Amino acid sequence: MQKTNAMRLLEKQKINYSSAEYEYSENDLSGVSAAKKIGVSPSVVYKTLVAKGDKNGINVFVIPVAEELDLKKAAKVSNNKKIEMLHVKDLLTVTGYIRGGCSPIGMKKRFPTFLDVSSEKLSEIYISAGERGKQIIINPSDLIKVTGASVFDIICQKEE
């Protein structure tokens, strides 16, 4: 596997990780599909979402792929009154990554990053390696170390 910038950054900081590759389809870039192809539960695969706050600009949220970001919680933890998802067409310019290959590690700039609290129960999570079809498997505490992420409950609660 060719190394991505995110992988090189982890190695430079001497942070342990492993990786996984899978065949992706332009028609289905979902994390749930990626989890199936890798052969793991969607609960351990996390997606990187980029949003823009009304007070402090760009914020990054890392949540399980089958979950939905709660925009009210996201605004609150990021000290914004309201927050909205960054338009896909602006993703590459802002982060250096494309949809389906956006990693919280190695963006063009370091943005405030928030990791969902569900990660605390896990010894490793899968995140994008910065290219479609490539995942980094990392301990959540190492992800926090490399991104400066804060841990909060930022996903929508499922209706019972």
Structure description:
The protein is of the alpha/beta class and 160 residues long. It has a single domain, classed as YbaK protein (Alpha-Beta Complex). The chain contains five helices and eight strands. The chain has a five-stranded mixed beta sheet with strand order 4-2-3-5-8. Strands 1-7-6 form a three-stranded antiparallel beta sheet. A hairpin with a 5-residue loop joins strand 6 and strand 7 (134-138). The longest helix is centred in the N-terminal third of the chain and has 8 residues, at 5-12. The N and C termini lie far apart (42 Å). The model has no long low-confidence stretch (mean pLDDT 95).
Number of distinct beta strands = 8
Strand content: 15-25%
Overall tally of domains? 1
**SSE string, helices as H and strands as E:** HEHEEHEHEEEHE
Q: How much helix, percentage-wise, in residues?
A: 10-25%
So, CATH architecture?
Alpha-Beta Complex
- Give the biggest sheet: 5 strands, mixed
- Per CATH, what is the topology? YbaK protein
CATH superfamily: YbaK/aminoacyl-tRNA synthetase-associated domain
Arithmetic mean of pLDDT: 95
Look at the helices and sheets and give the structural class. alpha/beta
Poorly predicted tracts of residues: none
- The strand order across the widest sheet is 4-2-3-5-8
> Counting H and I runs of at least 4 residues, what is the number of helices?
5
Short characterization:
With 160 residues, the protein is α/β, with parallel strands linked by helices. It contains 5 helices and 8 strands.
